[in-house]
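One such shown below:
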Amino acid sequence: MAAPLPSLPANKFLVSGPDKPGQPAQPTWQQRHTKHATAGGTTMGSVIAPATSKRRPISASATMSTVNSKMQRAKSGSRSVLQTESNRTVPMVQTICLDLITSGHIHSYIEFFKLVLVQRRIAPDDDNLDPDALHRFKDLLIASEDANRAGEQKQIYTARKHIGDYFLGLKLYDVAVRHFVAALDVARHLSSHTRIEIEATGNLGRVLELHGRAQEALEYYEQSRRLSREFQVDDGDTSRRLIQVRTLIADKMSAEGRYADALGSHLMCLEILQQSFPDDHALASEICFRLGEAYRHVGDIANAVKFLELHLERCRELGDPAKEGAAQGALAACFAKSGNLDLAVGYLKNFVALTEHDPLQTAAHSDAYYRLGALYNKMKNYGLAVECFERHYALVTELEIAKRARQDADDGENFRADGCGMTTLGTAQAQLGIARGNRLMETYIEAVSGDVGKLLKWKASLDPSVF
């Protein structure tokens, strides 16, 4: 029979016991850890920060039994604190950190610690902590880490997607982008799951769009749509989002005066619509309106009128007087630009008649009367020009009164009335004065044109000092 092994000497780093007689025992690492957990402090020092050096992993069950021997969940049902034997509470964030450490989810702990305590992304301050949101984040991190350990790619993708959706709901778009990128990387390795790659690509486009990165979103939407059409998967939702982003980009181009570039983008939108959902007349009408405006700005009046009349026809079919009025106004601008003033006046009158009783169209009405007055001036119909400018002045005065009342109600905060592109009150007064002067001058010329003597007598009576 083999001789028994000699007993090992006590090691002060592993065994709790006095190094020398009369000295207190040194606590083990687990005892020091438990001391931190039960201290009940509220500072970050009470939460164990992620270690920078590698240590031998501690058994989760052993550590859990140590912690459970000292504390238990508060029986009140709250998830925000732990209740210790001494009736002290441990803060919610510290509770979750301890849960992650003791369950062995170290990567989840590091991610949670970084986003919650270091970067303060989920809750900027302790007063705004949402227990359910934080525990939901913890559960998602655990699911992701477990999926990574198991090596199940589909589960890894699902976990990453759910974390991305979580941050999307919090409107933390930059963090959401990171997780949706990771999800897409996993999806691209799932060769037998093309639908997942289509979904992942579209999801990344969606969060980039919400983050204000429209050009990047456009690329991923196009990838998702191309895969959908290649594998004969319904691309309706992706195509709509693609049109939405292209329209957003085109509108920005128009605002910058890049009408030719905007026109190209709108034409692509029309092509996508015709391929994916040709029966969507409402969306087709919107695209036609933008195409008409783009063609008008590049000087192609024939195509502008063509698409605007298509839009006008759709608006009549859909029974939308506001949009029908906008189409009438746009067509008036086209004919005014081409020199067909009679048609321009006719369309402007139609616009006024369609929207006259809509209080939301007051600013647009004011603009229409201004444009009518200018057209009548060109046509030398000064009487009608005065009538239009008088109506324009009255509407601008009404809007100015409403604006000042709103400013008073808002304690002087900045306010811009609907139709903020309208002329100012001073400009409206000046235009009305010019129109009245033109009308009086016409009457005067008629009076003196047949009598040169009267004209000379009038000139002689003028006071030279006024000149």
About this structure: The beta strands are 71-73, 82-84, 89-90. The CA atoms of residues 348 and 371 lie 8 Å apart. The longest strand covers residues 71-73.
